[in-house]
Amino acid sequence: MLRLEDLALFVRAAALNSFSDTAREAGLQPAQVSTAIKRLEQNLNIRLFARSTRSLRLTPEGEAWLPYAQQVLQTLDAGYEQIQPPSDEVRGTLQIAVPSDLGRNLLLDVFQQFRSTYPALSLKLLFSDRITDVFKDPVDVAFRYGNNDDASYIALPVAPENRRVLVASPAYLARYGEPQTLADLAQHNALTFVLRGRVHNSWSFSLRGKMQQVAVKGSMMSDDAEVIHRLAVKGEGITYKSWLDVSDDVQAGRLKLLLPQYEGDRIPLNLICPHRKQLSTTVRLLHEAVKARCENAMRTLPAIET
Predict the structure, then answer these.
(1) Residues near 63 by Cβ (< 8 Å), separated by ≥ 6?
(2) How much of the chain is helix, strand and coil, in % rounded to 5?
(3) Global pTM?
(4) Alpha-carbon separation of residue 195 from 118, 132, 201 (angstroms)
(5) pLDDT in tens, 190-240
(6) How far apart are CA 100 and CA 82, in angstroms?
(7) Which of 288, 275, 287 has its CA nearest to residue 135?
């Protein structure tokens, strides 16, 4: 008879490509994970993993069987959620990783209200522009910009139509003028973001389906997206930011949208977690609260001018 624990360890080992990481996540010894996989292979009469001293990969049989194992666990998780008393679900501690600018300026109020609504819940908020590894870092869920091209984790869409926009403060534009074309950006001070030591000084735009890259330069850069945001509001230059990050400032007149006929990079926002077991009622409620706030912000994004 198959053991559910063995099945769960198989699915996690397939995602992590490591018995050691799977054991660490489950609070077990690596030998216990190896024994569970061997027991599962004996029950199925197939070899699930090809092992060596340096690598671990699924066999063709393991790859074929993986989606069925995932489906079994997902079905059981869904059934388990249905029978849990609602009063016992929104409690404990939820660890959330969020990009710094998004967290501090758009979502902090959402998190405060959410915690107030569910007083038995504690939130641990981790605001950083470092890309969180939801498998290895001490977080339960993360909000992440970008397309979901990694099938090893679960992603729930939050703001799929979000994109980058050009903005500057009225004070900066009064001093230096407003760019009328993308070529004009070369004459302006660009506030650029640094990630993993790389300066993001090539900005992408689309006009009627034609892509254009613009190289920019400036006197100030930072590895903290919120710092770039604050510098833009203070009139230090032009920046290229997620609409979600700057929507409130544009609506309040602290920043002005520039060259609105051009469409910036699309950077959808998703909630991600390692596996469906993490999609508790608490996480689903948080997802809905954040999604509602982001949808309100997206309604203020002007349509592309043609």
Answers:
(1) none
(2) 45, 25, 30
(3) 0.69
(4) 35, 13, 11
(5) 999 998 788 999 999 999 889 999 999 999 999 999 999 999 999 999 999
(6) 35
(7) 275
